[in-house]
Amino acid sequence: MVFGINAGEFIILVVIAVIMFGPERIPEFSRKAARVVFAVRKIANNATSQLKDELGPEYQDLTLQDLNPKTFVQKHVLDGFQEDIKDIERDLHDVKADVNAATHELNQSAAAPLSAPQTPLSPASEAMRERYGLCFDLDAT
Predict the structure, then answer these.
(1) For 36-95, what is each residue's pLDDT tens digit?
(2) What are phi and psi of 66, to 5 degrees?
(3) Domain extents for the chain?
């Protein structure tokens, strides 16, 4: 796939070119088109290398795709935070597991008859109390 054009679209473009310009002028237009593509590619490469030189050594791995603002920010700004984001995701997963365990225990204790003797705190509730400094009994609510 070149320039985002698949094979079917390319064939349609060739047929339209043959109809519009005739088979005798197609080689001339294809040479001109190749020169234009070469010139545009050369301009883009020169602009990229000049931008790399002006930005300094920390941006030597800059590519044309990096000039997309979203890609640029993700690559150069958010890279330092990726490990922090993963740590936060792990902590949130742990909190979710603790909350699910406590909710399950609350549902079980709510389903228990009222005359049942009071049971000690479950390990999950005890872990939540220690981890988050809770000063109330999760099993009692």
Answers:
(1) 999 999 998 888 888 888 888 877 777 767 677 887 777 767 766 777 778 888 999 999
(2) -70, -15
(3) 7-67, 83-140
